Amino acid sequence: MSGWDSAACWIRMCAKPRSDKNAMNWKKNDLTTVRITDIGINGEGIGKIDGFTLFVRDAVPGDLAEVRLMKLKKHYGYARLEHLLEASEDRVVPSCPVAGPCGGCQLQHLSYEAQLAWKEQQVRNDLIRIGGFENPPVHPIIGMDQPLHYRNKAQFPIGYDREGRLAAGFFAAHSHRIIPLVTASGGHQSDVPDITCGIGKEINTAILKTVLNWMLKYRIPAYQEDTHEGVVRHVLIRCGYHTDEVLVCLVINAEKLPYSEVLADMLYDLRCGIVSLSFSSNTKRTNVILGDSYQMIRGQEYMTDRIGGNEFRISPLSFYQVNPQQTERLYRKAVELAQLTGSETVFDLYCGIGTISLSLAEKSAAVYGVEIVPQAIEDARQNALINAVDNVHFYVGKAEEIVPELYAQQGIRADVVVVDPPRKGCDAVLLETMIRMQPERVVYVSCNSSTLARDLKELCGNGFCLEYVQPFDQFSMTTHVETVVLLSRKDA
Ligand code: SAH
Predict the structure, then answer these.
(1) Ligand 1: which atom is nearest the Cα of residue 399?
(2) Which residue has a Cα nearest atom 6 of ligand 1?
(3) d(CA 427, ligand 1 centre) in Å
(4) Which of 335, 350, 353, 403 is the pocket-test mutation for ligand 1 (most atoms within 8 Å of CB)?
(5) What's the topology of domain 153-307?
(6) Would you say 309 and 331 are in contact if contact means Cβ atoms under 8 Å apart?
(7) Beta-carbon-side half-sphere exposure of residue 176 (alpha carbons within 13 Å)
């Protein structure tokens, strides 16, 4: 035994065992071989060796992979895919050249059929594991006809690439490093070829290129998070599916945007359907993308699109579903499950610009829509007007504050409640109020099956019955899954 070896041995014998030592006695950078059997919530492949769980990015179920260990905890760890020893039958070549590093998509290397099967199972598992339902009535997932280039909206961070070029793209997974799709550089450097995002609209590339060229020409710096300096933070682009109208909004770290008229000329010269150009001032150190308000540079304050026969005006700060084709199917199912006869009072909670509310209004006596973003409610009221719908009433505020007020103070009781909350699910006070109110039916539209399962457990423990679960793929290539659920009152 050399001096070094014996010293190491002595240290090992005397040192107290560290509590974070992993159960396999592995060290960082060790290589091991693992069969991938599942997918984690962030899209990583999951493999197990003697009960030890390894998360491997870019690996898919069925792969046999040699992996390098990166971060080790007692019973689980993270590893990097080094060599694919056997490729899964479900593995495909991503269509996007930056699918690996980009944090936007997590499942591009998995076949679309396998993505759908996993999402459907994810909903079932959450309802069983978190919701406590033994055999939830989950119907086969409704997938997309064409799973690429579907997103009608994107918010691109603006910054610099490693060589200092102006860049627009998406953040890398778990980081704020920009993976560039479009770059622009003056002087001696040449631009890198542009990439069109695999799930975004092709027109985005030309718009981003124009914004970057304008920044370069007028020396308008990109925002930098570490120093909180610079101007342009994000570019929001939204496209109408049925109208081909385009809305562009720059998010800036300033109160005013210099040379904005020139930017408008350059963008409108693209003749790509831009009808609304604005900026939103966001001078806070925050991960929240948009500011609280916006100012117009050129055009109208909104773009228009249609869903299921209704026309909708959408202004820069309002929420609008990102997948128009699937949204039509989703709303049709939500309305069908509401089983309206024309005499019902309906609550549409978390209503955004009133898209579901107007779909429900045709077959209801009255619809009450509640939404926290004031500009979205302005859009909703306008949307009711332009579609000549006069039996909807919209309220600005938190659903958990407005609904108790409508019910307890004004005595308005819903026969049917539709909820479509953000990822964190419904507020406890809202659930409590729904339990007291006991509507005949609840239609729950969810973009997060784990908070859905948590909320359904609460409702079904207090007078409701789980009748129908329909998953939809609204977000192909990503791990997200949308679900529409029907609950009925037990004694109804
Ligand atoms: N139903 C709409 C919007 C769903 S997205 C549609 O299909 O387009 C969720 C919406 O809930 C967003 O518009 C968000 O602004 C809103 N929201 C978030 N928290 C809220 C709360 N506590 N009360 C009411 N609305 C809320």
Answers:
(1) 23
(2) 352
(3) 12
(4) 350
(5) OB fold (Dihydrolipoamide Acetyltransferase, E2P) (2.40.50)
(6) no
(7) 13
Active-site residue set: 447
Assess contact for 179 and 161: CB atoms under 8 A.
Answer: no
Homologous superfamily (CATH) of 3-86 is: Nucleic acid-binding proteins (2.40.50.140)
Where does ligand 1 bind, in terms of residues with CB under 6 Å?
319-321, 350-352, 355-356, 370-373, 376, 398-400, 420-422, 427
Burial class (CB in 10 A: 0-12, 13-18, 19+), 25: exposed
Mean per-residue pLDDT pooled into runs of 10, the chain (492 residues): 42 49 90 96 94 95 97 95 97 93 93 97 98 98 96 97 94 92 85 91 96 97 96 98 97 98 98 98 97 97 94 94 95 98 98 97 97 96 97 98 95 97 98 97 98 98 98 97 97 76
The pTM assigned to this predicted structure is 0.91
- What are the distances in angstroms from CA 14 to CA 5, 9, 18, 103? 14, 9, 12, 44
Neighbouring residues of 293: CB distance < 8 A, sequence distance ≥ 6: 280, 281, 317
CATH of domain 117-146+323-489: 3.40.50.150
